[in-house]
Specification:
Distance between the termini: 87 Å
CATH class of the largest domain: Alpha Beta
Radius of gyration: 25 Å
Helix content: 25-40%
Oligomer: single chain
Number of domains: 3
Number of helices: 8
Largest sheet: 8 strands, mixed
CATH superfamily of the largest domain: Alpha/Beta hydrolase fold, catalytic domain
Shape: globular
Strand content: 25-35%
Strand order of the largest sheet: 1-2-4-3-5-6-7-8
CATH topology of the largest domain: Rossmann fold
Structural class: alpha/beta
Length: about 425
């Protein structure tokens, strides 16, 4: 009887001990999930409060990477339907935007996002609470995606540097609260908005899957008075596909004026579709018939956030110098060109006018247990094992807010003189 009692007590002890261990594990997992959710939901400045906590909680970089890749627990308690908001920049400029969230928003489902850039950017700044966004945009309300209609005006054209900063930051604000499919974020534009879509295709394509410029003209961007006087490098359009529409009789940008640009796209092998609307004017009367083809184009062209080949041309290094996992850091001449091909742990680089650059490394694409080799213009400049770094991982996660594009190491390299 006494033996039975001791066995019984031992069994009972072990049973409750297992329960206690399991409860602690569940509580620890819940705590980790809450911390990850807080990190993703925070602004870049607020996220700094969680960086040290995450490094302390994660046993290693590999675990932290998996946590971040899995992402946060999105809340159901978020605004849906038509919402009007504004982002305030560092200098106090107010950038209004409307976003349309499906009424049946389900936080367990990833939603594509479409940015729609309006025309008529020479008007004064939009007043809050007005109907500025509604002209022709009612049809944008859809249950299968989140739609964003930002504002542009005479001091913030789509191709101004303040908008170049603004649009990606608006996207990141939405990523903090909604379960967005980072690889299906598209940028469409009408008239001046179409010209704006060209600008982002040429200058900073990283967050976008495709560009859809309607009745716009890339030549505007070259104009020093109205377009910023940008130099356009067609190599940069190799990054993402374009769906371009122009009207034959458009009073501002007739298709014939865009044709030389299209010829260059064809010669360069840029992935694009160009539709000329017979007798079409400066309007979107053609859009209802074209929508099925446009939607199929979007469906067929999800973003590849970590492609094996990346090409980029830059004429400055303070901005417009990054394409996905490649960044140009120093120029020895202007412009500078870099082409990178990644095959496993081997990176083959062609650099012209680039004296320093950065490669961002993802653990799903390279084997960190083996040396990583980098050859520039036929000369090997790096061949050694690279150590993954939690600070690097958290920095880029905080910068991009992108579960599809996480980097656990970066190589800062210089080309031979």
């Amino acid at each position: 009887m006494r033996k039975f009692s001791w066995l019984f007590l031992l069994t009972l002890f072990l049973y409750f001990n297992v329960i206690e261990v399991n409860n602690k594990a569940v509580a620890e997992e819940s705590s980790n999930r809450e911390l990850i959710t807080s990190f993703w939901a925070a602004s870049p400045e607020e996220s700094l409060d969680f960086l040290e906590q995450l490094k302390e909680k994660a046993p290693d970089v590999e675990t932290l990477y998996e946590w971040l890749k899995r992402g946060p627990e999105y809340s159901r308690d978020v605004p849906v339907g038509q919402q009007e908001s504004a982002r305030i920049s560092g200098d106090g400029t107010r950038f209004p935007y409307v976003f349309l969230v499906p009424e049946g928003y389900d936080p367990s489902h990833k939603y594509p996002v479409e940015f729609m850039l309006h025309g008529g950017v020479s008007r004064p700044e939009w007043d809050p609470g007005g109907g500025w966004w509604r002209r022709g945009y009612e049809s944008l309300k859809q249950e299968d995606r989140i739609v964003v209609v930002p504002a542009s005006w005479n001091e913030a054209f789509w191709w101004h540097e303040n908008q170049a900063e603004n649009l990606p930051l608006i996207l990141n604000i939405l990523k903090r609260n909604y379960n967005i499919d980072e690889d299906r974020v598209t940028l469409s534009g009408i008239s001046d908005g179409g010209t704006g879509a060209y600008f982002f295709a040429f200058k900073q394509p990283t967050p976008w899957a495709v560009f859809l410029p309607y009745i716009g003209h890339p030549g505007v961007l070259r104009n020093p008075q109205s377009g910023g006087g940008y130099k356009l490098y067609f190599e940069n359009l190799m990054s993402k596909p374009l769906y371009i529409v122009n009207g034959e009789n458009d009073r501002l940008y007739p298709a014939s004026s865009v044709a030389p640009f299209i010829d260059i796209l064809v010669d360069a092998g840029v992935d694009h579709i160009w539709k000329v609307i017979p007798e079409g004017g400066h309007n979107t009367n053609w859009l209802p018939e074209e929508i099925p083809l446009i939607e199929q184009f979007k469906q067929d062209n999800a973003r590849d956030a970590l492609p094996e080949d990346v090409k980029w041309v830059a004429d400055r290094t303070d901005k417009f110098n990054r394409n996905l996992w490649v960044r140009i850091d120093e120029l020895s001449q202007t412009p500078g060109l870099i082409e990178v091909q990644r095959i496993g742990n081997q990176f083959d680089v062609i650099a012209r006018g680039v004296s320093a650059f950065t490669l961002l490394l993802n653990p799903g694409e390279v084997d960190f247990s083996q040396p990583i080799s980098v050859t520039v213009n036929g000369e090997e400049i790096h061949s050694e094992v690279v150590v993954q770094n939690a600070n690097t991982l958290l920095h880029w996660a905080n910068e991009d807010k992108d579960r599809s594009m996480l980097f656990t190491a970066e190589l800062n390299l210089q080309t031979s003189k």
